[in-house]
Design a protein that fits this description.
single chain; alpha+beta; four-stranded mixed sheet; 8 strands
């Protein structure tokens, strides 16, 4: 794990220095060799993905970094990225400086994995007023939001990492949305077809002959495969 604080500022010189620091990070990470689980986390001070520091982090190589939020763009003063802004909770909340990058080994459906969709800025659900304090939103209780304002000029970044409870050698039939893991998204699909004829994709997955009805037999299969990964070499996880 790399704890990161790149050069601050918005001048050309500042951006050049950030790019150099990112290149140094990657050089060090690349030297670790192939197939390493790497997290780069901290204050990158980048104002958008057009910066060379971003390009250097995502360049190919052993330590290639991937944005867990998968959100390139121009973040500063941009309403679209408000839920990713982490600086400054007192005001103005206008920058996505704090980022968690991971190496591809956290995204390959094998072993230790980033839990897809878990990345978030603590206390920030995007309801605050752009360029105002985090306490204008409803991402936490008023007491918590006020405490966050008092504690720092950055909000904490949260992401979950897990070891799947089991790894299967074939395609889990309950992975209805084909995102390589059986989770709440698949449960929601089964729920939408509950006690009905199956829809598309079909949640009628019981090992017996399909009975054209979604019920507890199908729910049992989903529960058995819960958090199983899809290791089919033809799946999207291997692309």
């Amino acid at each position: 794990m790399y704890a990161v604080h790149l050069k601050s500022g918005s001048t050309t010189s500042d951006k050049t220095q950030r790019a150099l620091e990112a290149a140094n990070l990657r050089s060090n990470a690349d030297a670790l060799g192939e197939s390493k689980h790497i997290i780069f986390a901290g204050d990158f001070n980048m104002q958008g993905s057009s910066e060379r520091a971003w390009t250097n982090m995502l360049a190919s190589g052993n330590g290639q970094a991937f944005d867990t939020a998968d959100s390139p763009g121009v973040w500063r003063d941009n309403e679209t990225f408000k839920s990713l802004h982490s600086q400054n909770p007192r005001s103005p909340m206008d920058d996505r400086f704090d980022i968690q990058f991971v190496s591809g080994d956290f995204l390959d459906c094998k072993g230790l994995e980033y839990a897809s969709g878990s990345y978030h800025v603590f206390g920030n659900n995007g309801t605050h007023t752009l360029n105002d304090s985090i306490s204008t939103g409803s991402g936490a209780s008023p007491t918590v939001l006020t405490t966050l304002e008092d504690a720092s000029d950055h909000l904490p970044i949260v992401a979950d990492y897990r070891i799947p409870e089991s790894i299967c050698a074939s395609f889990p039939v309950a992975d209805f949305n084909a995102d390589c893991v059986v989770d709440f998204l698949d449960f929601a699909i089964l729920g939408s077809q509950w006690l009905q004829s199956p829809g598309i994709p079909s949640a009628d997955i019981a090992p017996e002959l399909p009975d054209d009805f979604v019920d507890t037999l199908d729910l049992t299969v989903l529960a058995t495969e819960w958090l199983d990964c899809n290791l089919d070499p033809q799946s999207a996880c291997w692309e």
